[in-house]
Amino acid sequence: MPDLVAVGLGLVAVGLAVLTVSAVVFSSWWWLPAAVFTGLALLGVRDVTQRRHSVLRNYPVVGHLRFLLESIRPELQQYFVERNYDGRPFDRDVRSTVYQRAKGIEADEPFGTERDVYAEGYEFFVPSMAPKPVPEEPPTVRIGGPDCTRPYEMALLNVSAMSFGALSANAVLALNRGARMGGFAHDTGEGGLSEYHLRHGGDLVWEIGTGYFGCRTADGAFEAKEFADKAAHDQVKCVSLKLSQGAKPGIGGVLPGGKVSAEIAQVREVPQGRTVTSPPYHQVFSTPRELVTFIAAMRTLADGKPTGFKLCVGSRRQFLAVCKAMLAEDVTPDFIIVDGAEGGTGAAPLEFADHLGTPLTEGLITVHNALVGTGLRDRIKIGASGKVATGADMVKRMLQGADYTNAARAMMFAVGCIQAQRCHTNTCPVGVTTQDPRRARALDVGDKSARVDRFQQATVRSALKIMAAMGVQHPDELRPHMLHRRLDAATIRSYEELYDWFEPGQLLAEPPQQWAADWAAADPDRFTV
Questions:
Q1: DSSP string spanning 347-383?
Q2: Where do the Glutamate synthase domain residues begin and end (predicted)?
């Protein structure tokens, strides 16, 4: 593919030369269009050399049209409304809030809420008549159960799983450098551990999927020695086994062949140029008991570092079977990441994205209750991912049972994603999700890493302010009665009333009626449908 920027600037230069000759030879009137071309040429050079806007670096001159449309966005808002996975309007200010925070701009709006507070499904936090001061330093979450010898202090908001391959090298570099600057964790995604994850020294959660990329044998099986060698990197603070993903539970990840460059092939240990499809299931376990014992083996291979797994919750009966296996083997993961069905992906069948998997609210509450009910909650921390973008999102998820949160889409916004939705085509216009070096160069690592850091710090600060307004200073103090939902025009219920919340050991003593059949059928030696 030709360098379109060079071709465009070349055409402008040729046009300018032709107009200049015409002005000298034929008529002085030709100086007017020549002046216009000169201005466009200078603007194009400025666009290509500046570092703040990836769109302008890839699309000099014409890229300014996008910013013109952004300047009249409030007037266009009624015509261009993003939607949540369930059809409700996506908060109008989410993307603009991320952009503003990434740029260091206070994300304040005039005139108050534009949400219909009397609409079914409207949710709100309960403010306190005795607000608390906002903590000077954000709290962290210690990840590490009784079998972990090298616990890790996890930030309240971290970079969620996105692989090198799905993302460009520059995007990975920017995310990791931002994580190092802000002191939060960067999940590698299942695409392997690359030098771009390691170059800037940010803390890593190394994710291993069903393809075992970066620690696989020639036939695609798990390779223990290679895993141990890479897990020994000082930057690798935790290791995570991916069971399923919110946007496509039940199928493996997909990386189109056009994005499998020689470098990607080397990192993933796969053939170059061929579409890479991860298997839908793991080879290393086939029963709940084998899953938990493999988690223990991973922790040993990782020299005692925190080890856990990620899943989009499906069958409650199957998750209870895993809990029974933990009890039987006296082995627990150090963390479980719950990915909601509303989570994003670079490539997935539309039917899977729209119709499979449990939304994050129900998934979190299910996992939290199962661990509390089996007396295991104090040994396992819970992370939450799936459209986490604001401080309000963080507080909501921690109130529902999470200890910390991860964000993917919002972090992509912070590094410059404009939601062109070309992730699977290798033609991302801002260099975030492409392996085309000409497009990827538009993403300036220094500028975008600072934006990632600023976004994370401002969002955590927002969450702490919301909690302080609710009368709490630490996530541990959040309770279900502090979040309310409108059911209809005349009915409001708190989360304490809407959902069951178990007492420690309740499933072991006397399972509630709604859970009794699943608890009785849960088998630690097979995944019962």
A1: S--HHHHHHSS--HHHHHHHHHHHHHHTT-GGG-EEE
A2: 157-472
